[in-house]
Write a structure and sequence with these properties.
The complex is a heterodimer.
Chain A (H helix, E strand, L loop, with lengths): L4 E3 L2 E4 L5 E6 L6 E8 L3 E9 L2 E5 L6 E5 L5 E5 L8 E8 L8 E2 L3 E5 L1
Chain B lengths: L3 E4 L2 E5 L4 E7 L3 E9 L5 E8 L4 E4 L2 E6 L4 E6 L8 E9 L6 E2 L3 E6 L1
Parallel strand pairs in B: 2-11
Antiparallel strand pairs in B: 1-3, 3-8, 4-5, 4-9, 6-7, 7-8, 9-10, 9-11
């Protein structure tokens, strides 16, 4: 099976812009989770989608949003970008909602100038 | 603060030596997982150990779980330069479906 893919791999934006990141899970996986990784805060959970519904959400402002499509592909959007949003954004998929192994994509590295 | 905390933060060893890293957590868990991350890339799942298990092996990896002490350890035997990476533990606190990662242990294996 193909692994989790994320596009784009690298992105440079300026403050105030918005960005959309895409994640294609492993075929057959219905759960997609998003994480933000920064040197200061480490890996932080953003949200999880399961069967097109947001099932869990971390402590991030409303500027961070996401959605999942019927084919389980997911997108996350960050509006009104801030310098602090510069991070590696990781997507992970799993076959069940929780408690099982998550398979991570290579990440999208976002730099906000 | 983080649910899981790895210790040490950094570890530097020679090839062939064993590497041990620890993870402590605060609340009861359903399971605990260990992941590896090579520099700036995605995480790779290593082992999942459930709360009713005490030890698990996978190749050169050995994971233990002590729920009474709320801690887990990851042992890598006969380390190789290719083991150089950051290692994270992840837990799902009981009743929560939100996986929480520690800050990781950075392992450097010198050839």
């Amino acid at each position: 099976k193909a692994g989790v893919t994320q596009t784009p791999r690298y992105l440079i934006k300026t403050r105030g812009q918005q960005v959309t990141l895409s994640c294609s899970p492993i075929s057959g996986h219905r759960s997609v989770s998003w994480y933000q990784q920064t040197p200061g805060q480490g890996l932080q959970f953003l949200f999880e989608y399961f069967s097109e519904t947001q099932r869990n959400k971390g402590n991030f402002p409303g500027r961070f949003s996401g959605r999942q499509f019927s084919n389980s592909r997911s997108e996350m959007n960050v509006s009104t970008l801030e310098l602090g949003d510069s991070a590696l954004y990781l997507c992970a998929s799993s076959s069940l909602q929780s408690g099982e192994t998550q398979y991570f994509g290579p990440g999208t590295r976002l730099l906000v100038l | 603060s983080q649910q899981g905390e790895e210790d040490p933060q950094a570890l530097s060893i020679q090839e062939g030596e064993n590497a041990t890293m620890n993870c402590s957590y605060k609340t009861s868990i359903n399971n605990l997982q260990w992941y590896r991350q090579n520099s700036g890339r995605g995480l790779v799942h290593l082992i999942l150990i459930r709360s009713n298990e005490r030890e698990k092996h996978s190749g050169r990896l050995r994971v233990t779980l002590d729920t009474s002490k709320k801690s887990s350890s990851l042992l890598i035997t006969a380390s190789r330069a290719a083991d150089t990476a950051s290692y994270f533990c992840a837990t799902e606190p009981g009743g929560s479906y939100i996986p929480t990662f520690g800050r990781g242990t950075s392992l450097i294996v010198h050839p």
